[in-house]
Amino acid sequence: MSKKSVKSSAKRAAEKASASEPKKKLKAAVECEPEKVGNIEYVHQLKKGKVTDEEELQDQVDGQIAAMNKIIEEEGMAGLKKRIRDYRKSDEVEKAGRQYIKDNLEPAGEDEDGNPLAWLHEPDMATGGKPTDVTRKGKRRNNSILGGQANKIADSILAMPNDTTKIEAKLTILPAE
Questions:
Q1: CA 158 to CA 154: how far, in whole Å?
Q2: Cβ of 37: how many Cβ atoms within 10 Å?
Q3: What is the DSSP string of 19-82?
Q4: Between the CA atoms of 82, 83, 89 and 91, what dihedral angle is there, to the nearest 10 degrees?
Q5: Is the backbone peptide bond immediately before 123 cis, with ω within 30 degrees of 0?
Q6: Distance between CA atoms of 170 and 12, rounded to whole angstroms?
Q7: Among residues 110, 172, 164, which one has the least CA distance to residue 146?
Q8: Residue 5's beta-bridge partner residues?
Q9: Cβ atoms 167, 128 nearer than 8 A
């Protein structure tokens, strides 16, 4: 079985920066304290008879990671881990998230091609998002693909050292069997 690996958002950004940033800025970045990067992997098995919008799936992964990194910047890795543990203690966080959408947002509807949409929690509440961290709409199928992996991703985050300063992710797409 062959795997197709999609570049992480951080790698794409680094490639863009290296092509366009002056060497002075790159040298300054090297002199800063090194980042301590934690890595996670989202995996999706393509299925016969179902269409996966891989580009939009990657976009949703990028949104998850950007939101996790924002929490790390503001609260540290210990803060992100606390949010995950708080979520796991009770189903109240998830209930509050569902209620927030119901009370404050219109139904997500469909995209121009008729694909059902969902409101996206970024990050997913199981991976540290608050009930009010609803940022945008995305394809419901892709949201379900990522949501189905939230506990595995949360476990990976909880296993990372507390001095982790950044999370990077890889999306691996497995071919249909």
A1: 6
A2: 12
A3: HHS-HHHHHHHHHSPPP-EEEEEEEEE--TT----HHHHHHHHHHHHHHHHHHHHHHHHHHHHH
A4: 180
A5: yes
A6: 11
A7: 172
A8: 172
A9: no
Contact 122, 66 (CB under 8 A): yes
Closest to 107 measured CA to CA, from 121, 118, 115: 118
- What pTM value is reported for the model? 0.81
Q: Cβ–Cβ contacts within 10 Å for residue 91, how many? A: 9
Residue 76 pLDDT: 97
DSSP SS3 for 89: helix
Integer Cα distance of 53 and 139 in angstroms: 9
Per this entry, what is the length of the chain?
177
Cα–Cα distance, 138 to 111 (Å, whole number): 9
pLDDT digits (tens, 9 = 90+) for 39-59: 999 999 999 999 999 999 999
Kind and range of the H or E element at 94? helix 92-104
The CA distance from 69 to 22, in Å, is 25
- Three-state DSSP class for residue 125: helix
User: Which residues partner with 110 through β-bridges?
Assistant: 116
In this structure, the dihedral spanned by the alpha carbons of residues 88, 91, 97 and 98, taken in order and rounded to 10 degrees, is 140
